[in-house]
Amino acid sequence: MKINFFPYQAHCFAFGGFEIQMLSAFDALQKIGVDCRKTDFWSRDNSFDIAHFWGFGFPHYENFRWAKTSKKKIVMTVLLPYQESRLSGMKLALSRLVHRQRFLYEQMQLAHRIVVVNDVQKNVCCSYYRMPPEKVAIIPNIVTNNFFEAPASVPSKEKPYILSTGNICRRKNQVALCKAAIRSSTDLVIIGKILPGEEAYANEFRALAESSPNIRWIPGLDANSGELAGYYHGCAGFALPSYEETQPISLLEARACRKPLLTADRPYAKQSFYSGAITVDPDSVDSISRGLQLLRSKGEYPVSGDDVIFPCRDTSVAEAYKNVYAGILNE
Fold it and tell me: For the chain, what percent of residues have pLDDT higher than 70?
């Protein structure tokens, strides 16, 4: 079987956790011998069996229709909004009748398989987009092996530090995290590039980071690099008080390193991978500050032979995708 990967947007314009996930899955599939390729939009070669689209939205719509016309099998890995209340669920259901969501609903129906990261996302897919359960597969995000394995060295620092990683943007809530670190006298290391379009927010963040001796900002390290993994292994805990996430890879990476977690009291935090995490109110600097104090006192997760994080290993995720591909080709 031959698989073609279709990205959601040009990576020169936006690149984050979802794009890293797509590339990690691509590498993992090649590692186990699956013939997969990154789509060359200038190529006329359509000698592949499955079009695997990453992301859910207008950028894919016409290619979906062409893939269907060309009798290609279609797989789509999606990130869906959590329905935090009955009202938000009703709004999503009704939105199938209007412009944007109507097109997204039609797009969903064209797929042979939808891949989501957990059972809550599957429920949204089946309930609001009316996908048959057998057409929805649950495959978690990948954590590369260097986060599971102890590194040869970790960054030296006199005091234990709390780590946070991710693009600098309002959604990730680094300004409140910095204010909480200052208030609680917590040593904080933040690793992340400024997300395009978030420059005003980034200026507020930069002012806090550069004026506070207990905050260190590293404007970005290569995803999955040994240096990045070293900062995870060397930290005393990991903090991500985001307003909105689906299945944040940074929390998975910290969990693979057995580090205690702090995150926002939002639906994405209620996943088995993050069990035992300290949850805080992302709108409250006081709440985050108290959470940081508690995080510093927590020990690491114990080593376990059946750890909940093991399904996130690259080979496990690659085999799960391989089974999805084989399943639709055999239908």
Answer: 91
Whether residue 18 is found in the same domain as residue 126: yes
| Cβ–Cβ < 8 Å for 260, 187 | no
Q: Specify whether the CB–CB gap between 39 and 9 falls below 8 A.
A: no
What is the pLDDT, as a whole number, of residue 76? 96
The strand pair at 73-77 and 50-54 is best described as: parallel
Dihedral sign for Cα atoms in the order 236, 253, 163, 184: negative
Is there a single domain that holds both residue 138 and residue 150? Answer: no
Contact assessment for residue 320 and residue 139, using Cβ atoms and an 8 Å cutoff: yes
Residue 29's Cβ-side half-sphere holds a number of Cα atoms within 13 Å equal to 23
Q: Specify the amino acid at residue 227.
A: E
Taking all residues of the chain, what is their mean pLDDT, rounded to a whole number?
90
* 178 shares a domain with 118: no
Q: What is the dihedral sign for C-alpha 205, 210, 214, 215?
A: positive
Quick one: DSSP state of residue 306?
A: T
CA dist 164 and 232 (Å) reads: 9
CA 29/CA 23 separation, integer angstroms: 10
Q: What's the pTM?
A: 0.85
